[in-house]
Amino acid sequence: MDIEIALADFLRREASLRPYPGACGRMADKWVALVRGFSPIARYGRDFETDDDVQAWLTEPGGIAVAVNRIMRSVGLEKTADPQFGDVGLVIHGDRINEKIPISVAIRGRHGWHSRNSSGLMLFPADTYWKAWAI
Predict the structure, then answer these.
(1) What is the pLDDT of residues 66-122, one digit of tens each?
(2) φ, ψ for residue 11 (rounded to 5)?
(3) Hey, which of 10, 63, 107, 123 has its CA 20 to 30 A from 130?
(4) pLDDT at residue 49 tops 90
(5) 44: which DSSP letter?
(6) How many domains does the chain have?
(7) Rg (CA), the chain
(8) What is the C-alpha separation between 24 and 78, in angstroms, rounded?
């Protein structure tokens, strides 16, 4: 699989979809499933389907950062200090991590980190990642 072509095709498909709950996490989960052949969320055994499901998870201690870290660790995906094209990471939308600064799950591309929210696709600079996992 040519990872650059696969990611470009994947992002085109994502861009055509209507908004859906937990978009950043779900998009990353679908990417891992495409590349690695399994859904980390499904293997973890706790899914989210509605906005209420997403909110319930995000309001738990640690929010999205703890949830993603638990999922990735439980399915055997290793952290990396040098994220490569196609890896999955957490990006920070601001200067520091706190409850008021949003964090998104994203996929490393050629020009930065690709993520999505209810408004559509987003691109964050390459240096905005906090944690990343090798895919």
Answers:
(1) 999 999 999 999 999 999 999 999 999 765 554 455 889 999 999 999 999 888 899
(2) -65, -35
(3) 10
(4) no
(5) H
(6) 1
(7) 14
(8) 20
The residue written with tokens 């906005």 in the block is 51
> CB within 8 A of 40, min separation 6: which ones?
29, 32, 33, 71, 72, 74, 75, 77
Q: Which two tokens stand for residue 13?
A: 């498909």
Residues 6+ apart with CB under 8 A from 87: 80, 107, 108, 132, 133, 134, 135
Residues near 64 by Cβ (< 8 Å), separated by ≥ 6?
Answer: 25, 57, 58, 90, 103, 104, 105
What is the domain extent for residue 28? 3-133
Between CA 74 and CA 39 the distance in angstroms is 12
In degrees, rounded to 5, the angle at the alpha carbon of residue 30 between the alpha carbons of residues 24 and 31 is 90
β-bridge mates for residue 112, sequence order: 109
Q: What is the pLDDT of residues 8-41, one digit of tens each?
A: 999 999 999 998 989 999 999 999 999 999 999 9
Residue 50 predicted with pLDDT over 70: yes
pLDDT score, position 35: 97
